[in-house]
Amino acid sequence: MAATTSNQLIKAQNPGGLVGGPANASENLYQGTMAFFDASVGDITGDDNDGANAFAGIVKEQKDNSSGATGDLDVEVYTEGVFELVGSGFAQSDVGDAIYAIDNWTIQKSSTSASFIGTAVEFISATKLMVKLEVGSAAP
What we know:
Layout: E1 12-16, E2 19-22, E3 27-29, E4 34-37, E5 44-45, E6 54-59, E7 63-65, E8 74-78, E9 80-86, E10 98-101, E11 107-108, E12 115-125, E13 128-133
Antiparallel strand pairs: 1-9, 2-8, 3-7, 4-5, 4-6, 6-8, 9-13, 10-11, 10-12, 12-13
């Protein structure tokens, strides 16, 4: 799977903990996608930078800052809740395991070149898990 370039409708349980921050320069942050804190400047980006950028949350609504500078727009992200996220190779035995993002849309079980986002709390299918967000936490 690859990063998405459109708004996404996602299933969520108890989304909350809205936090705002400056959108990265020249970037379009899509609703329902994962966002990260840019390690070099601290703004919010859709790029996990091969795991170098910490998870910020799930984008509440699209913010198109593609022709703007850093901070021209603020973006809100959900930092709490359980979200249905997509990847591949999942099994029931993954419940309770740490989950990582490899782009703004795709999750995996491996920490290799990926950012920790939370813990799997429910198995949906081989391509979907319900993940409890753990913004600001280190992987267990």
